[in-house]
Amino acid sequence: MQACLCMSVRRFSSSARQTAKSMTQQGWLTSDDIRYRNGLLKTLPRQNRLQLLKKYPHGDPNVQARQLVERQDAAVVEARLAALQARLEAEKSKGRASPYAVPQVGPSGNLPVYGDSKNGARMTVIRKIEGDLTALQLDLVNHFAQEDIKFESRVVQHFSRIEIKSPLPLTAHVKAFLASKRAIL
């Protein structure tokens, strides 16, 4: 019984493939008949395709609407961009203390400064930095150079964080530095 069932499934799948192949060779199915809508691959019968062509002789109405929306969106985007630039200039004129900021996280208002050990070295990671990361890195270099603390740092732009590698844990020093610079949001 199982062998018979397997034979019928194989016969069905191969016959369906042959039918689709013969339909494309005979011209019953073309690339225009196959459309991708809402994530589903659908085939349209030839009659429906002719009805659609009669109904919309200049093409797909969705494409025309999409082009119109793209044109409108460009004007809207330019207006929003101008408003955003004006707001940024107003914030700069208010004179924030530094070009970067580190927001407090959680209900307790802690800073996102974490300590970690990696390959025998102490790592201090400052996360969720808003603004200019390289300016914060340069300020940290200048601050720790005055205190004679040696460390290596790197900026990870993609995750907006700075990783500091040193033989000493610097988590408390970095938190105090950010508090003194008033770079906390």
From TrEMBL:
It is found in: Mitochondrion. Keywords: Mitochondrion, Ribonucleoprotein, Ribosomal protein. GO terms for molecular function: structural constituent of ribosome. InterPro entries: Ribosomal_mL49 (IPR007740). Coiled coil: none annotated. The keyword Transcription does not apply. Its main location: mitochondrion. It comes from Mixia osmundae (strain CBS 9802 / IAM 14324 / JCM 22182 / KY 12970). Pfam families: Img2. Transmembrane segments: none annotated. This is Large ribosomal subunit protein mL49. Belongs to the mitochondrion-specific ribosomal protein mL49 family. GO terms for biological process: translation. Gene3D superfamilies: SUI1-like domain. One of its GO terms (cellular component) is mitochondrial large ribosomal subunit. The lineage of its organism: Eukaryota, Fungi, Dikarya, Basidiomycota, Pucciniomycotina.
